[in-house]
Design goal:
stress response, three-stranded antiparallel sheet, GrpE_CC, Nucleotide Exchange Factor Grpe, Chain A, domain 2, about 190 residues, Protein GrpE, protein homodimerization activity, three-stranded mixed sheet, 6 strands, cytoplasm
């Protein structure tokens, strides 16, 4: 049980004990001689009771907010549990893609390249199952949340603020950007 939950429980118990004391005081007192004194004491006791109830309601609301916040944090942890592993795998994936772009000149190299392509596809499929998607870049409008501009160019074939070239792929995990795409943008 967390420290905050313990504190809230203790405050709730204290409020309950206060209410019980108020009730005991009402029944334990002997009848007063004056009706005015009784009404004053009764109004004081009612104020104490109201104060205790308000404290209890505030504690209850605080506890409900705490529970909702913890649930939201746990959902986010579960949703993005693989983020650190994926971040560690992305450089290896980049190296795989660079290796797959070599030019092949003999059959042994072609066979090796086919094996590497199979491993690369398996790795991509495993990442897709976890919710990883590559960020589309070339031909898209530059978005600073998804793309990191490292160069600018002037190319008549592309409109203004359009990504012309991608230097490094970017990836998203569900709706969170793990790594933005490094791109060249048309002015």
């Amino acid at each position: 049980m967390s420290e905050e939950t313990k504190n809230q429980q203790e405050e709730q118990d204290q409020a309950k004990a206060d209410n019980e004391e108020v009730v005991e005081e009402v029944f334990a007192e002997e009848p007063q001689e004056s009706g005015e004194q009784e009404s004053d004491e009764l109004s004081q006791l009612q104020e104490k009771l109201d104060e205790s109830e308000n404290r209890y309601l505030r504690l209850r609301a605080d506890f409900d907010n705490f529970r909702r916040r913890i649930n939201a944090e746990n959902e986010a942890k579960e949703k993005y549990r693989a983020q650190s592993l994926i971040s560690e795998l992305l450089p290896a994936l980049d190296n795989f893609e660079r290796a797959l772009n070599i030019e092949v000149d003999n059959d042994q190299t072609k066979t090796l390249l086919q094996g590497m392509e199979m491993v690369h596809r398996s790795l991509i499929e495993a990442l897709k199952k976890e919710g990883v998607e590559p960020i589309e870049a070339v031909g898209q409008e530059f978005d600073p949340h998804l793309h990191q501009a490292v160069m600018q160019t002037e190319d008549e074939n592309y409109g203004s603020n359009i990504v012309v070239e991608e230097f490094q792929k970017g990836y998203k995990l569900k709706d969170r950007v793990i790594r933005p795409s490094m791109v060249k943008v048309n002015q």
